[in-house]
User: Fold these one by one.
Assistant:
Number 1:
Amino acid sequence: MSKSKPVLNSSLGKKLIMSLTGLFLCTFLVVHLIGNLQLFKDDAGYAFNNYAYLMTHFAPIKVVSYLLYASVIVHAIYAIILTSNNKAARPIGYAASAGGANSKWNSRNMGILGTVLLVFIATHMANFWWKYHNDQVPYIEYRTDLSTGVTTSTEIQAGDFHDFTKVTENGVEILKARDLYKQVDYAFDNVFLVAFYVIAMAALAFHLIHGFRSAFQTVGFDHKKYVPIIQFLGVWIFGVLIPVGFALMPLYFFFCK
Amino acid sequence: MSAHMNLTLKVWRQKNDKTKGQFVTIEAKGIADDMSFLEMLDIVNDDLTRKGEDPIYFDHDCREGICGMCSLVINGRPHGPKQGTTTCQLHMRSFHDGQTIVIEPWRAAAFPVLKDLAVDRTAFDRIQQAGGYVNVNTGGVPDANTIAIPKRIADEAFESATCIGCGACVAACKNASAMLFVSAKVSQFALLPQGQTERYERAQAMVDQMDEEGFGNCTNTGACEAECPVGIKLTNIARLNREYLTAKVFREEDIHG
């Protein structure tokens, strides 16, 4: 037996990359959902806008976010490489196909689901990430009376806003921030965008019901006791709880705001 | 008393590996429902021969489900609609009078069609030759059972060793991946003391050869397991991933050698 070729050139190595980037993206979803639950707070976006500032200006978070963008790109590129290899492995297809007889629809169509998600990510980042980073969101000022704890908010003009600032004057906390909350509210007035978000979250659900479990299989994790737990997490946390949680956000702003 | 039926066969006819093939419709008349699928094809071939036509070329040997020679994708399912059987064990009672049956060869770049329904499966032989063996010392015959092996390990290895190498896993897989076959062949040795000497080199050599032959990448759809006539389990694929990645990442001989 001669010297074997490098691990990342092999089919299993490429799949390892899919698996690890995919699982990393799954951990991001958990954090993203928990953080964005602040959208449901009825505080004119005080908590959420503070959180948005933290997530874009705290150095360790920035490092992780760049890793995240890289993971999305690597996951997509390797998906294309693997898919084109797979197509080449069967140049002539079957005239009669019975895919449903031996496998689940979502496991066979991860590429289609993934493409929906990639379009979604691009749309999502254009709507919020790009606008937030390029001063295309409204600005807001919160005044909190520290003795009573009552917060009032007013929209302010671009000329009155210089940077995220938090000062306390005469027992009143004045916070000026980019109002990403308002941008979310605006964006989800659009029924087509809301519909697209809900569809994308359905795609996410089916992608992860297969993908989460599959990622563990690819790294060789197969344990009688723990695989059922992985399966449970894959279906109920990543396949149901997280997509439903995300889908509720556009629906909440469309119907309740 | 057996019932007789008339069937319409749509059979892939291809002169040799150089020419293009196409489907040819052939009527199969007076087929008894207790015939095996291959006996039905024998009858059709007798007919074709009598008419001076070229009989349908298909692989077969033992006709009792243990040699792995017979193949055929029948109505989109490798080895036909029944689970846990080879084509030779499939009986015509699984079909009904007047049914149209589409019969295709295994479709994979690594399994080129030789003629009609027979494909060249020597890619599997080359994978076996790359590492699917154990070295033994010459000399006196050792006593049986001198090496203690726990029964559950022996059973697990035996389950993997039941693979007959028919290639239905490749045929069923939407990516034409040979992972189930390779994983079974790696597992049967990796589990047993006799297979330890070449354990990690084997996993690497066989995966390298699998990639070399042009099989696709496993996406864990589970179609292979569902169609395998001898019930090889997906747990073998997890084991192969584990063996290969362990070999690549953690083994002394690869890190320092």
Number 2:
Amino acid sequence: MRVSEAAEEILESLWIASEEKGKPGLPCDLESDAIEGSGLHELLSLSYVEVVNDLIRLRPEGQHEAMMTVRRHRLAERLMMDILDMKGIPGDERACEFEHLLHHGVDTKICTLLNHPTTCPHDRPIPPGECCEVAKATGVIGVVALTELKAGEAGEIAYLSTSDPKKMQKLMNMGVLPGNRLDLSRSYPTFVFRVGNSEFAVDEELAREIFIRKG
Amino acid sequence: MVIYRETDCKFLAEAGREHLYFTAVRQDEHEILPNRQCQLTSVEILNTPKKVPMSQPLAIAPKRKIFLVGNPNVGKSVLFNALTGAYTTVSNYPGTSVEISRGEASIAGTTYEVLDTPGMYGLQPMTEEERVSQRILLQEEAFAVIHVIDARNLERMLPMTVQLIEAGLPLILVVNIIDEAERMGIAIDVELLQQRLTIPVIAAATAHKRGLDEIRTAISTFAGGRQPAYAYAPDLERDILRLAVQLHGDYRVDRRALALLFLLRDEETTALVQRIEGESAAAIAETAREIIFSYRSDLHLRLSMERKRICSDLLAGVVSTSPRQGRTWGERLSAMTMNPWTGVPILLAVLYFGLYQFVGIFGAGTIVGLLEGDLFSDIINPWFISTADQFIPWLWLHELLVGEYGILTLAVRYAVALVMPIVGTFFVAFSILEDSGYFPRLAMLVDRIFKAIGLNGRAVIPMVLGFGCDTMATMVTRTLETTRERVIATVLLALAIPCSAQLGVILALLSGVPGALLIWTVVMSLIFLLVGFLTARLLPGERPMFYMEIPPLRLPQWRNVVVKTLTRMQWYFFEIFPLFILASIVLWAGKMTGALESLVRFLAPGMTLLGLPKDVAAVFVFGFFRRDFGAAGLFDMNEQGLLTPVQLTVAAVTLTLFVPCVAQFLMMKKERGWKTALIIFAAVTATAFSVGWLLNIALLSLGWLA
């Protein structure tokens, strides 16, 4: 059963409000006759939500669907940023449209393509899907952006994601090339790593373009 | 023989018609691409021989030129100095050797002209300096090109050697810093590398004079000649050739290398090809576009990977590393300087001991006291004046030499007794920090803060240098990457960074009033951040990117420190001393003609607005000639008890913010152009007086310092 886009937006806001901000629910500002035919009506009839004292609240039945909606939204954001290289407001706007297309296993495929990311570009957690649990259980070694590595971790450089030739050249000048080993020694206030026998400091923007195969 | 696909043969045939000489050697054992039938190991495309005009006289043959090239920080400048015997700045900091140094070397009876090119990472330039290096390499005739690389990072540096060989340059390879590599447990078989590369390879530690004789021998016995280029994967070679055969003009550089640079969209090469090929340039560009599109990926990266493959073949068995034992004290200290929890206290300690104790107390206090107080005020100046009284009857000359603004009594005294000790001690401290490799660590520590003001961590170097001499720092802003960063840094230097001479006087001035120094520091820091923040918002341009190599922390070598300090002092005196004398003459002329008085009268209403006595106007006029002239004038007024604590603080803040000195203004004009310099000048003046006005109101209404 697929809910409408309007209903998805409501579920998303509700989940963020209740799970991440710890609010009991969202105020219901719709007149009772305006509810008819809206996304809210749809959710009420599915018993995903309830309206108590002018507050819309998420019911346990709607919990999973809401979580998956948030997951799709944040996966869409990651896709925009990591693969399509759309950052900032335009990226967010496209992500809002794109998230509604991630059904019928498309979300799983994208999640796998992105190597099961755990945070969205705004650093909020992406609720894990089944594919993430499976990947975790089978211990697949992932390729992650340097920004996801912790200080002290190391790995092999898998690829560089930048499309800006200047950035690309700067990284290559530092010996940041696929196949080379990279040791991250600091991640704050800037990323400090060692490639070969040289140490480099780069800011987050550049670090985001380096993808590492952990291990 | 190599078996080519049909398309390859077509291109080879075309190549043949173009009188290109092409050799290819088959190599079976190294097969990385399974669907290829072969892999080329060596490709040679020779240009058609150049017609040498017969009339060229042999007698005035130009001097043989030697170019030094390499990454920043590999010891090029040290080698340059060793070869030529003249010193330029030896720097630990990437990008300081902005200007090209030329010198002459006499080796085995022959004189060579030696050029030290700015540090570069490859033949495709990204910065202005690299563009200069590329131009020298590709457009000037070299007897020998000495590529200096860091023995600790052969894998990272050798790809550029491959590139230089590819460009057909007569190459000598110097594997430098071999001593530190050995200490790290890295052993390099230089003999084997030389056999593989078939060019002279010399292991050296130029900072410790190791390998210098071998380098000289290599130069005097250098045969030159061009080496075959290393081959990339067949598909790349085919495409490079496809483009190379379309280049018909007469070029100094190998056409294959040129075609490659054209494919990488190198600006200089594109312009060159357009100029030389004329009408057919459009067709060449079209072919290049087709090729670039056919790869659907970054060609730079592809080539880097290819060069990496070539280099790992070259280096197989050359480098052996023995396992490292634990971390050295340097590495431990290095980690501490980069951790904000320990790094900030270390920074404060550096500032306290380096700047406050050494420059402030020792330089500006002890030494200035000795020179200015004991030597000049008590002995030299009275002697000058009494001599002048005796022998110079003309008032104008008397005034010019030993008067209030006299060349001898003011300019020389200021330069030698006041400024030299302060700037000198500052340069010593700065050079020690520079040579130890501390600045890149400071840069990474402050990068986040500097991003907020539109700069990146790199800008910390000119900013710190500004505390020594803003004029020199304004010149050094050219090492910043974008014009936007350079303008922001110039504004901040002009406005909120007091130079050491000024700082010394201001510290002395305000230390008598409790709280004044604190207010001054807080106001200056706020203005620095606020103005940086606003300028960053107002100026369009891309966000700065921060990336920097962090060289190992090491004990500063006294030789380097002395050389760096002396070089800076020398620059300072050549640039600044004439301006002292000029300022002295202008002030004298102003006094004699009464123009100075008129100017001071003109500025007087402004002083009243700031709540200051009218006489302070003179201080600001002097301040333009030398920042510390002004501060020193304020010092005199304070000694006479003419200023209240509030007035003193307001005057000190306004004067610090107030326009840069003449030298700095001229440097701003030189680096940024008239328009930008004048806008900055106006904006800085306006800001200084507005802040002074606001501070006066705030202090009076709050009742502080009353």
